[in-house]
Design a protein that fits this description.
Oligomer: single chain
Helix content: 25-40%
Mean pLDDT: 93
Radius of gyration: 20 Å
Strand content: 25-35%
Number of helices: 10
Order of helices and strands: EEEHEEEEHHEHEHEHEHEHEHEHE
CATH architecture of the largest domain: Alpha-Beta Complex
CATH class of the largest domain: Alpha Beta
Structural class: alpha/beta
Largest sheet: 7 strands, mixed
Number of strands: 15
CATH topology of the largest domain: Quinone Oxidoreductase, Chain A, domain 1
Length: 341
């Protein structure tokens, strides 16, 4: 029987780790598609899973990582959406085609409740697959499903982003950099906070209109207000959660929108309800997006030939180094693992 290599999450008590295993190559059934994975990319939640800190139920011994791209090598009976040889990526919730989020979708969360992309081959129902634009490499496409779609939907949460509005992004991770690129497509002004002058220079190079270094300016919310003539930004994408949520709200204009998309600094925050009430803020969470959101985003990216910012690419055998790089916080853009050539 043909074999493949796959990373599996190994849980021991409260601790989790991962190891590469040899496994039989799966055979696609009706409406199923087998993908030869060329590349996978990491998100913060992937590191949380390996630390045993992911705040949701997951499949025991799951193949981790939601984000990846590859080539269709076999299609089961009655598959009509793709054919052998097609270049595809996978939507993070395998059965969320369109419309609002439904809690049932969490049972088909790629890399968490169902096997993900950190393997030489992956098997999915055809509905989960999204074709890759011709101008994109597998490495670039692998970086999109979670971070890019999250940024796309977060920018348009509550109401679509308008030209001339101001967006605040945080840091130089995948969601923030995609949000920067997409906000510029919409004609918005982008302000950013980051931890170093080097990262600030990179953000400006990518199109940020102004950047505040929160290491040297801990009261960064005041700086953001000053950059908006005291009014505040139209919307904030809050990445860190606990350590940023109060200042994110303080940076937002009256009737503005705070979109919570991450929990990198913890789950607390002490966000006073009076801040929401007095300033008529809308505070919302963003749960990635549907396949139709993904497809709409790709249409915009293709029109503008937008390319993801890739920090580093690691070979499959060094996947642990890729995780370490992400946890270091030193990255600018997406960290990708090249699975097969």
């Amino acid at each position: 029987m043909e074999q493949m290599k796959a990373v599996r999450v190994i849980t021991a008590g409260s601790k989790a780790g991962a190891e590469i295993r040899d496994e039989p190559l799966p055979t696609p059934g009706r409406h199923e598609v087998l993908i030869r994975v060329h590349a996978a990319s990491l998100n913060y939640r992937d590191t949380a899973l390996l630390r045993g800190e992911y705040p949701a139920a997951t499949k025991k011994g799951v193949v981790p990582v939601s984000d990846g791209a590859g080539e269709v090598v076999a299609a089961g009976k009655d598959v009509t959406r793709v054919k052998k040889g097609d270049r595809v990526t996978v939507s993070c919730f395998a059965n969320w085609i369109g419309g609002p989020y439904n809690p049932d979708y969490r049972f088909n969360s790629v890399g968490f409740s169902i096997d993900g992309m950190l393997a030489e081959y992956a098997l999915f129902y055809e509905d989960a697959l999204v074709p890759i634009p011709d101008y994109m490499t597998y490495t670039e496409a692998a970086s999109l499903p979670c971070a890019a779609v999250t940024a796309w939907t977060a920018l348009n949460k509550i109401e679509p982003l308008q030209p001339g509005q101001t967006v605040l992004i945080q840091g130089t991770g995948g969601v923030s950099l995609f949000a920067l690129q997409f906000a510029k497509i919409f004609g918005a002004r982008v302000l950013a906070i980051t931890s170093s002058d080097e990262k600030a220079a990179k953000l400006k190079e990518l199109g940020a209109d102004a950047v505040v270094n929160y290491s040297t300016c801990p009261d960064w919310d005041r700086e953001i207000l000053a950059l908006t003539d005291g009014k505040g930004v139209d919307r904030v994408l809050d990445i860190a959660g606990e350590k940023t949520i109060v200042k994110s709200a303080a940076s937002t204009k009256i009737t503005g929108v705070v979109v919570v998309v991450g929990f990198a600094s913890g789950f607390g925050g002490g966000f006073p309800p009076i801040d929401i009430l007095v300033r008529t803020l809308t505070v919302t969470g963003s749960t990635i997006g549907s396949r139709m959101d993904f497809e709409a985003m790709l249409t915009a990216m293709e029109r503008h030939k937008t390319r993801p910012v890739i920090d580093r690419v690691y070979p499959f055998a060094e996947y642990r180094e890729a995780y370490r790089r992400l946890e270091s916080g030193q990255h600018v853009g997406k960290i990708v693992i090249e699975v097969t050539h």
